Amino acid sequence: MGIRVDISDFSKADAEGTGPKTEALKSTIAHELMHTVMQYTLTDGMSGRFGEKYPAWFTEGTAQLAGGGYSTGWNDTLSYYAQYLTSANDTSQDNNIRSYLQKFTMNNRPYGHGYLGAAYLGYLANGGGAVTSANIAQGMDKIFTDLLNGQSLESAIQKNTGISTSQLNNLFSNGDQNLTEFVRKLSYESRNGAGSVITTGLDVGGSSLLGNNASALNQPFRIDPFKVTVNLSGPSDLGLQVGAEPGQHIEIDLYQMSSRALGLEDMNVRSTDDADRAIDQLKYAIGCVSNVRSQYGALQNRLEHTINNLNNITENTTEAESRIRDADIATEMVEYSNNQILMQAGASMLAQANQHSQLILSLLG
Fold first, then answer.
1. Shared domain check, 225 and 304
2. Is the dihedral of CA 160, 161, 167, 173 positive or negative?
3. Would the pTM count as exceeding 0.70?
4. Where are the alpha helices (DSSP H) in the chain?
5. Domain presence at residue 347
6. 296 and 279, same structural domain?
7. HSE value, Cβ hemisphere, 13 Å, CA-based, for 132
8. In a domain, 357, yes or no
9. Is the dihedral of CA 323, 329, 330, 332 positive or negative?
């Protein structure tokens, strides 16, 4: 399978493997590939054409399981708490983690809490135990097997985990201790990686998400039994042709500068720690905006210079064409006047000649 990426949220350097968001780009590709596989194999549930349509938290959450729930910023708060854990069993951050889980619902935050909910379902479906990528993936294989066999999402979840989707939502809102413990271990194991369950470990980054990581055909959750190759040499976001010759163009990178893209959407100042994190995030966002503004300012100067140069070329070309095509009014008027004088003189002489002929005829008559 091959995929060509037309970059919109990433820079050219990211696509070439040298940018700061290269890992996030590869995680995003794996996320979208998971959507493609689900759309192809679970068309009815994805489209809702025959009744049930899977909720966003499930479709996005399972795609995040493939791409990694800790790779694109949706669980940065949990990653922050995980930095202070000395082990997966360290309970010092449980209150913070519990408060974070209670703050949102899976439906309101499908990429973040939806990922956590889907991961917990996979964990429960395989009987609990260690919080590993293989364990969660094997549980999701069981749920997906039932979905492929025509069972509803609710039935597949209830059968394999023993809980319903409404009960799962309640675990978040109530700050359930077992869920809190699972999320703590998941965050700790993913603290230096993507948190993807299609790789050899939760601590594996985006660079290993694409390739021969998928397993055999009898494991339906795994993305693809074939090698996935990615062409990251697609065009930049916007190219402007600024000259008449090939290669005379300016490439412009477009950036997402929304509050979500800058990581400002979930900020709060309800505690000292939250305020400190908010200040750091604001500084980071200001730096991002300043860098983009300076880049666009330089591009604007280049474009203004190009416009002035093109205006000069247009003026010179018009002047040259005028010399070739347009009449010299002064010269033409002189020539016209000269011709008029000659014509009038000729007419006058002809009139005088006619008068002499008539005079001679009158004398003879």
1. no
2. negative
3. no
4. 12-16, 22-41, 43-47, 56-67, 76-82, 94-103, 113-125, 133-148, 153-161, 165-174, 177-189, 272-325, 329-364
5. no
6. yes
7. 9
8. no
9. positive
| CA 239 – CA 127 distance, rounded (Å) | 53
- Contact residues for 65 (Cβ-Cβ < 8 A; gap 6+): 34, 115, 118, 119, 122, 136, 137, 140, 196, 197, 198, 221
343 is a domain residue = no
Q: What is the pLDDT of residues 251-307, one digit of tens each?
A: 777 666 777 667 676 677 888 877 887 887 788 778 878 888 888 888 888 888 888
Nearest CA-CA partner of 267 in 27, 80, 65, 58: 80
Per the structure, how many domains does the chain have?
Answer: 2
Retrieve residue 10's tokens. 């990433």
Residues 198 and 297 in one domain: no
Low pLDDT (below 50) residues in the chain:
1-2, 211-218, 222-236
Do 95 and 212 fall within a single domain?
A: yes
Which residue range is the domain that position 131 belongs to?
2-235
